[in-house]
Amino acid sequence: MPLIDPARSLLLVVDVQVRLMPAIAEAAGVVANAGRLTAAARLLDVPVLVTEQNAGGLGPTMPALAPEPGTAFPKMSFGATRTPGFLARLPADRDPVVTGCEAHICVLQTVLGLIEAGRRVRVVADAVGARRIENREAALARMAAHGAEIVTTEMVVFEWLGTARHRRFRDVLKLIT
Known about the structure:
The structure is a single chain. The chain has helices at 27-43, 55-58, 103-116, 133-145, 153-161, 169-176, and strands spanning 9-14, 48-53, 73-75, 95-101, 122-129, 149-151. By secondary structure, it is of the alpha/beta class. The chain has one domain (6-176): Rossmann fold (3-Layer(aba) Sandwich). The chain has a six-stranded parallel sheet. Helix 1 (27-43) packs antiparallel against helix 6 (169-176) and helix 3 (103-116) runs parallel beside helix 4 (133-145).
């Protein structure tokens, strides 16, 4: 199924952490779009899973994206799939929609691990970041070459809605405009 179905989606927010974001190119846009996706997911009952890389060093998730206390998935491996228990946190009937940082390190390794595990993955291009734009672009190209579908925030949100008659349409539209 090519459309992004909210009943089959899980939003995966990878390492959007307070001490990392000041170093990320165009960080404000990445955080804003990840925030839009997180808010839309919550309105549309799409599960959200947040990872934190070395939280002692990089701090917690940005407040705008913060999960319920104690629910962030801690990791030290760059690729979340290398951390025991991570794949068990992803329901088998849910396709990950991925946002986060850094595109060419933790996002890339997590996405490649998910693909290797047989998952259908969408990466939200305008909601992933890196310190250097060329690293972000190279990572997106590599993930696409290995089977990840590259999408945008608005593609995801409007496919999750499906129709302007959706009961949450106006609430979600406020996130975009």
